[in-house]
Design goal:
With about 90 residues, the chain is of the alpha+beta class. About 25% of the residues lie in helices and about 15% in strands. It has helices spanning about 5, 50-55, 60-70, and strands at about 10-15, 20-25, 35, 45. The longest helix has 11 residues, at about 60-70.
Length: about 90
């Protein structure tokens, strides 16, 4: 993972784009921002949104998958050996 992937995420409802919540790789700017790219590649306009939009807009599936890929390893954890006693696992 790059250091860019380690930073905070902010979810923003994109009324003018597609009516879904998208993830951006930064904290919420205090006074808004210029257009930014979401994890899915969509260009988001920082239009103000209502609390209703926060609650009702579905999450962008591509952004969600991007977040999962950032936080879940691509390989499974190694399982304990079956022949070891439980206290040694």
């Amino acid at each position: 993972m790059s250091s860019e992937d380690d930073g905070p995420l902010f979810w923003h409802p994109a009324r003018q784009l597609d009516g879904k919540r998208h993830a951006i790789r930064q904290d919420r700017p205090p006074r808004g921002w210029s257009k930014v790219r979401a994890l899915c590649g969509s260009l988001l306009d920082p239009a103000p949104v209502s609390s209703t939009e926060w609650l009702l807009y579905p999450t962008c599936r591509a952004c969600w998958d991007g977040v999962v890929r950032r936080q879940v390893p691509d390989f499974p954890c190694t399982a304990p050996e079956e022949d070891q006693p439980p206290e040694e696992r």
